[in-house]
Design a protein that fits this description.
Length: about 375
């Protein structure tokens, strides 16, 4: 197959507006108008200004305070219930220096940044990938492994346990995207998508989960996607593979709780929207300002920070990034005409029109010309 000679200009964020989006607005509101601590002082302020307790301004602000407090209380107790937490005592701080992290797909994109960030925290990171990771951190150990193949994962897992130690954190990050219409997908495309995106998760769990079960503690991070919660054109195999991960995460949680009796092993599901990594560098997104405000693209560091915070919290949770992803599961409940309108506004069905696969290319797909890679910043 001939090398790809031309690529569409990838989406470039505008630095001035990178942080001016709905996520920033939600963050500000969460610490002001939606914060019980902040809202508590509103009726108090009016009372000190001479308003009577029975005045509408105090009554309404007090009712709003109760409503906001109940919302956060329910959210908090739900987290405590899921994680067998205490109303009065927080979990002990995570000792990062004692952690051994097994990370798949750690040689590029989010995985590479996550590996190096964890290494800075004095964590031993084991990277499993078909390509070596470029790093200067001494505590990152690389093992060549095609994580889509059970025999390779099984062989490497024995080496990791023998040479590095029993892992305490598993991060299934490896992923690939084809960006083809259903009829255009080849057998090799589908096998690669499900091998890397789905089967690798099973093989990593099969190989390393026994170490966590023996310790009855640990953390498992599953890298899914917002597209695992819905479907879009020209991404059928990718959407299906990520949907499989969402359900794998749910099943794993209940197996740990009810069959293995290991509720202290935490599970975190990550469902990000568009992330500005090499894998999605040639995706075409709407450029109108309101779209960028409501559905901003994520920088890899944003996802990495959220994952590390989740590990540090030691709570099982689902990370939906950015804010609009929280509503994706509910879009399918809308009447069909509103559902189609939302799909049209998002531009999701046409985002892959000019897509060129630049990451995870197989030998039969050829390679990109070096000058093209340089031109596109790949």
């Amino acid at each position: 197959m001939e090398p790809v000679e031309q690529l569409e200009q990838p989406f470039e964020p505008t630095p001035i507006y990178d942080n001016l989006d709905i996520d920033l607005l939600v963050k500000v509101l969460a610490n002001t108008a939606l914060s019980p601590f902040f809202v508590f002082f509103i009726p108090v302020f009016y009372w000190f200004q001479g308003a009577k307790v029975s005045d509408p301004v105090i009554v309404l602000s007090a009712v709003y305070y109760v409503f906001i407090s109940l919302f956060w209380f329910v959210k908090w107790t739900s987290k405590l219930y899921r994680n067998q937490g205490s109303l009065f005592f927080a979990p002990r701080d995570l000792d990062w220096s004692e952690q051994i992290v097994v990370l798949t797909g750690g040689s590029s994109g989010i995985g590479e940044l996550l590996a190096n960030t964890l290494a800075v925290k004095n964590v031993t990171v084991v990277v499993l990938d078909i390509k070596p990771i470029e790093t200067e951190n001494y505590n990152i150990v690389y093992y060549k492994c095609d994580v889509s193949k059970w025999d390779e994962v099984q062989a490497v897992s024995k080496k990791v346990i023998e040479e590095v130690g029993e892992p305490t954190i598993l991060i299934n990050n490896a992923g690939v995207v084809q960006g083809k219409l259903i009829v255009d997908l080849t057998e090799a495309d589908v096998n690669q998508t499900f091998g890397v995106n789905v089967l690798s998760n099973f093989w990593i769990l099969k190989a390393f989960l026994p170490s966590l079960l023996k310790a009855k503690t640990g953390h498992i991070v599953t890298m899914a996607s917002a597209l695992g919660l819905t479907g879009v054109a020209q991404m059928s195999d990718y959407c299906a593979s990520k949907a499989a991960l969402v359900n794998l995460h749910e099943s794993l949680r209940y197996e740990l709780d009810n069959r293995y009796n290991c509720p202290k092993i935490r599970t975190t599901l990550v469902c990000p929207g568009h992330v500005q990594t090499r894998m999605f560098n040639t995706v075409t997104l709407p450029t109108w300002p309101l779209f960028k405000f409501l559905a901003p693209s994520l920088q890899p560091i944003t996802v990495v920070k959220q994952i590390i915070t989740a590990l540090d919290d030691q709570h099982s949770q689902t990370l939906l990034l950015p804010f609009y992803v929280n509503f994706v599961p509910y879009v399918q409940l809308l009447p069909s005409y509103l559902r189609d309108l939302a799909q049209k506004i998002s531009g999701a069905d046409y985002a892959m029109r000019n897509f060129v696969k630049v990451s995870g290319r197989r030998p039969d797909e050829g390679s990109l010309l070096p000058e093209v890679e340089d031109e596109q910043g790949l």
